[in-house]
Amino acid sequence: MNKTRFEAFSDGVLAIIITIMILEIKVPHGEEFSDLKPLIPKFLSYVLSFIYVGIYWNNHHYLVHGVSKVNGKILWANLHLLFWLSLIPVATGWMGEHNFAKASMTLYGIVLLFSSIAYFILQRIIIVNEGDGSVLAKAIGTDFKGKLSTFLYLVGIVCSFYNEWISGGCYFVVALLWLIPDKRIEKALSK
What we know:
ion transport; mainly alpha; ion channel
């Protein structure tokens, strides 16, 4: 398969995910600013999830630049990632609808955790395909941020049973870690 087609398909799915998330925020029936107040939890959950999908889109873009050829394993690993990312709107909607309730924060963390695992699998399959001496393998190195993110998702999931705000804080910290695109790959590919 052509690398461009692979990337375009992924971009399209991610665009649809963002579109589905915004459709969960309904226009209020009233005409006063106070009528917007019930939308605050939905809007905040949308913003966090928008950032997450944007982070995955951005890092996926750089990851795909390190690919010289696409094979079936890469396609299936990418579909696995897109599957977990496609669950973000459901988790986001539930979280926003129920004011960040504990169970919704648990589900959100599980979706984020499995999305990060799926991204790691895709990354590893690409590295195996390209070779351990590839520019991409060298750029990713030990992937400290990826491992730290997985750990924080696990902490967030456990905390969600006790305190949803600590859980949300863990998810927010991971988003902050990745908000600036991963420059390792960009730098390595520009050399």
